[in-house]
Each structure stands twice: as C-alpha cells, then as structure tokens.
Amino acid sequence: MRQLYLAATGMNRGKTTVSLGLLAALIDRGLETGFIKPVGQRYAMVDGVPADEDAILMKSVFGLPDRLEVMSPVHIPRGFTKSYISGSVTEDLAARIGRARGEVSRGRDVLLIEGTGHAGVGAVIDLSNADVARALGAPAVIVSEAGVGRPIDEIVLNHALFTRHGVEVVGAVINKVDADAHPSLPGILRAGLARHGIDLLGMLPYRPLLSNPTLSMLVEQMPGEVLHPGADLDRVIEHVAIGAMQPRHLLERIGPGSLLIVPGDREDVIQATVAANRTARTLRTDPGLFDRLRNRSRFGRRAADPGRTELAGMLFTGGYRPRPRDLEAIRAEDLFAHLVEEDTYAAASAVHDLLVKIHAGDTAKIALIKALVAEHLDVDRLLEASQRPDRLRVQAPSSAPALRSTWDSVRDGVRRVFRSDGRAG
Questions:
Q1: Does 3.30.450.20 match the CATH number of domain 2-210+358-421?
Q2: DSSP type of residue 321
Q3: Helix (H) and strand (E) counts for the chain?
C-alpha cells in the first residue's frame, strides 16, 4: 500500500484544501483510497462519537465507509495535555494510531494521512507530526502559504524536523499564490526551495471563495446574537469595513460583499447603509431608475460578482442594540445583522482571525478545490514518490528523545536558513 503524510507549516495554510483535492484526484484515478487524521485538535461529536472535523468532512464528501473512530483515532480536548504530562493518561496512543491505520488501510491502494499543524505540533504528547509520520513509515508533503521569505523559511524549518526523524520529505505545496499580480513569484519560490534541496510539487492559485470566511463562520466563532440571518448565511465576506467616519465617506468605501463593523448606536451610519443597500437592490431590478436615483445614497465599492449588489451584512459592536425602527429597516432589506459585546477594535480583530474551514455543504468550494488541485498539483509525481521502497523503520515514538530531537531539529533548521541567505531577525 502506498501512503502520503500531509503536514503544514502552521494553521490556516490550506492543508485541508490540499487533502480534499488530492483525495478526489486519487479516487478519480480509480485507486481505492483511504483517509486518516491520526491526531486532531478540532473535533465534533457525531452520533456520540468524537472525531476530528476534517475526518468528518472527508467521510461525508466522499462517502468513505470507515468508522470515524478509526479515521480519527486520537483527538486532544481541553486539558488533555496537562493530564498527559501529569501521567494521568496511561493508554498507548501511538499503538491506537497504529491499529487505526491497519484498519483503514485494509484493501486500499493508497492511504492519505493528514497531520495537524506544523511538524512539531503534538510533541507535548509525544505525537508530533514528525513522530507519527516516522511511526507509520509515510513520506511527507509540506503545505505552506504564499509569500517569499516566510514560506521558504517555514518549509525549510519543517523539512529539518522531518529529516531529523528519518522521514522522507517528497516536496512542498504552496497555497494562495497570486501569480497574476506577481508573475515572477512561482519561479522565485521554486528556485528558493531548490537551494535547500526541496522540490516544489505545485502552487494553488489564490481564490477569494476559498480564503474568505462566510457569515455562518462568523456566527459559529463569534458568540453573540443574530438579530437577522439575512438571505444567505453561506455568503462569503469579501471585504471588511469599520464605520468610524461620516456616512457619506463610509459609503464610498463599502459595497456588495462588504461586512460593516459598527457600534449599534451609530444611527446615522446604519440608516445611510440600509438606504444605500436599498438603492443598489432597486437599480439591479430596474436599471432605468439610475437617473431618478442619482442623488440617493449609493455604494462606492464595486462588486467582485456583478450579479451581487447587496452588502454582506452588519456586525454591531459594544453590545449596543440598534433602535427598533433601524432593526425593522434591516429586516425589511433582509440584511444579515449580528450583535456582539466586544468593542469595535476587538470585533474587527476577531473577524480578521476567523478560521476558514470547509463544510460538506460548501458544494461550490469543494468543486473549485477539486479543479484547482487537479490542474496545479503534480499528483502523478506524488504517487510515484509514495511507491518508493519504504526506507523508514516503523516504530512507536519515544518521549524524551523525541522532544530533544524536536529542539535539535529546530536549531539546525534555523542555522541552515541563516547560512543560506544571511538574513537576521
């Protein structure tokens, strides 16, 4: 059986995107393909069974027959690491992963193994990505995010830790690459990684649909009160603006797809925004009214999708509920409205940090991911690498030596980066 271990250089780098697209590509090639997430940090309960969100996603999207208990054998709830360090956890977690891998791989041509975070994540419970990849004898692929210095530095650092553990790194995949805006970037990234002996296996282009959060993600991750759900909670937030200026100036900066963050007691901003949304909707249904509505409040920001004219929604801060008549106008316009207790700065920071996850119902996202991976990732090369004779000794990871190895690898990786390009800081 062939297998591949997908790791990343950090959170929100696109590892799940690559996993989903690669799993689809392998299945499309007629290969019996299994999926396992050995260690998960974000999990949900399904029929009383705790399982990592990515395992749930893959099982749902591809109809995989495996039990969630074996697709997601180890998950880390709150307080687990403290219990592990104190000695309260006595089960052999590595053995549990080994048994799960044995069951998932039965009758399979290929096993796709998705890690969690960077190469060192999980070291606190002696199950870092490098530890698990070594124990399972799986070659690794490192996923990073676009840039120049940061992705190369991060990939080199993670490569060092995998190598230190005896894990072969097949290569790297870089996500969210905007080659249209920066035509020279692909060549620079390929050459920069080649200097460290790392192959670039593919670059997935930046697509706002995959990178930006939806209104439903905002509701899930920002506790508050939904004052009105709007027409579509799966609407993508394309742009964020803060209502901290005069209404006429604000309207010049917002438009279709914008999320407006504003205290709920700013009646002037709320009323002007609702009026501009009403004008945009009216012009969409009857463009001939343009001259008559010339002096009405209108948005200044153009839509990414010409077919969408309405604001994405409004996020009210400070715990200030808009006045009843303003709420009535918002509901009449069917605009999304959410009330939170945080002040505007804290709310804006929380929106910026929203974790963008893929859900089984995101059919447009999933279709786009499959197409991007099929076009931009060298799947055949990955398959060829996974067929190489296993040069890794399958073993359960040990504790203290693994932690020392993690530190040594980080140190060596940093030295290697400094020697290669002379940067400091």
A1: no
A2: P
A3: 17, 15
**125 contacts 91 by C-beta, under 8 angstroms:** no
| Enclosing H/E stretch for 133 | helix 129-136
Tell me: pLDDT of 368 over 90. Answer: yes
Q: Residues of 30-52 as b/e, b for ≥16 C-beta within 10 angstroms?
A: eeebbbbbbbbbebeeeeeeebb
Backbone angles phi, psi at 23, to 5 degrees: -60, -40
- Tell me which of 130-139, 154-163, 270-279, 394-403 is least confident: 394-403
Q: What is the 3-state secondary structure (H, E, C) of 252-308?
A: CCCCCCEEEEEECCCHHHHHHHHHHHHHHHHHHHCHHHCCCCCCCCCCCCCCCCCCC
381-410: b (≥16 Cβ within 10 Å) or e: ebbebbeeeeebeeeebeeeebbebbeebb
Q: For the ranges 177-191, 195-209, 271-285, 378-392, which has the lowest average pLDDT?
A: 378-392
Model-level pTM greater than 0.90? no
Number of other CB atoms surrounding residue 146 within 10 Å: 22
Between CA 71 and CA 104 the distance in angstroms is 7
Does 70 have pLDDT greater than 80? Answer: yes
DSSP string, 81-126: HHHHHHT---S-HHHHHHHHHHHHHTT-SEEEEE--SSTTTTGGGT
| pLDDT of 212 | 87
DSSP code at position 197:
T
Helix H or strand E encompassing 175: strand 169-177
Average pLDDT over the chain reads: 85
Structure tokens at 57: 């996603």
Note the pLDDT of residue 372. Answer: 94
In this predicted structure, what is the pLDDT of residue 5?
95
Contact 339, 263 (CB under 8 A): no
The domain segmentation of the chain, as residue ranges, is 2-210+358-421, 213-352
CB 312 within 8 Å of CB 259:
yes
- The string of pLDDT tens digits covering residues 326-349 is 999 999 999 999 999 999 999 999
Q: CA 234, 238, 239, 243: dihedral to nearest 10 degrees?
A: -30
CATH of domain 213-352: 3.40.1390.20
Contact 58, 35 (CB under 8 A): yes
Q: Are 228 and 334 in contact (CB under 8 A)?
A: yes
